[in-house]
Amino acid sequence: MAQKLNGKVALITGASSGIGEATALAVAAQGAKVALAARRQDRLEKLVKQITDNGGQAFSIQTDVTDETQVTEMVQKTKTHFGSVDILVNNAGVMLVAAVEGADTSDWRRMIDINLLGLMYATHATLPLMKAQGGGHIVNISSVAGRVAIPDYAVYNATKFGVGAFSEALRKEVSKDKIRVTVIEPGGVATELANHITNLESKQKIEEILQSTTVLESEDIAAAIVYAVTQPPRVNVNEILIRPTEQE
Ligand code: NDP
């Protein structure tokens, strides 16, 4: 059966869990060859096996997106292995929420390094390839927190508002090169994201919200990404905002 992403190559950061993992499975199910990047190689290898067992093509590239050299190598390895990079999903991220006053500022640096600089390095390394190929699609994972600022989220907000601003300027720069840019803005999704919060009070608040309402599943976000990347080349889905029904 003809699948919508046959012949396409997708490189996904943060593919070892949550939204990135679900996206890898979803685009592979549409026929894309997938390059899976993250730090946890064992998790990536399990996903490679799952995709190849299903008849797809996948390989893993252990990458820390805060290291520009590793990110450049990630992009080059994808091109060498599969021949192109048609879709880049900049998904790797952390949400280390806490009030500004008294915050552990190393959490700020991690968020900025991963959520913003990592995404920028990957974009920077991929653009020349996409331009030479005659087009491509960059999907940047922002958040509802990229649109709405709330207490405890100030620095996470700053990174995700930054993703939105970077993406919109980028879109205007590269549209002439047939490179599409899409921003995905999820509300609450049941993933491992909250596990990494270092401020125990903020972590507890989020865990309570996650337990008391029905949040989204990673597959819901993956479906939105598949929608965006399977439109005809003339269509650039700029932005998708998806909240759980019960989220304000
Ligand atoms: P997870 O914690 O499940 O996934 C985060 C992914 O990022 C993991 O694969 C992790 O892999 C990767 N990652 C973290 N640090 C690095 C690093 N330095 N280098 C490479 N990869 C890294 O959370 P989600 O799936 O929820 O998060 C995915 C994206 O979705 C993030 O950008 C997040 O901000 C965004 N988002 C999530 C929402 C939610 O409610 N869950 C809501 C809105 C947006 P590893 O540890 O193996 O490196």
Provide a short characterization of the protein structure:
Helices cover 46% and strands 15% of the residues.
Q: Can you put this structure into words, describing what you see?
A:
46% of the residues lie in helices and 15% in strands. With 248 residues, the protein is an alpha/beta fold. It has one domain (9-92, 110-186, 217-242): 3-Layer(aba) Sandwich (Rossmann fold). It has a 7-stranded parallel beta sheet with strand order 3-2-1-4-5-6-7, with helices on both faces. Helix 1 links the parallel strand 1 (9-13) and strand 2 (33-38). The radius of gyration is 17 Å and the shape is globular. The protein binds NADPH dihydro-nicotinamide-adenine-dinucleotide phosphate.
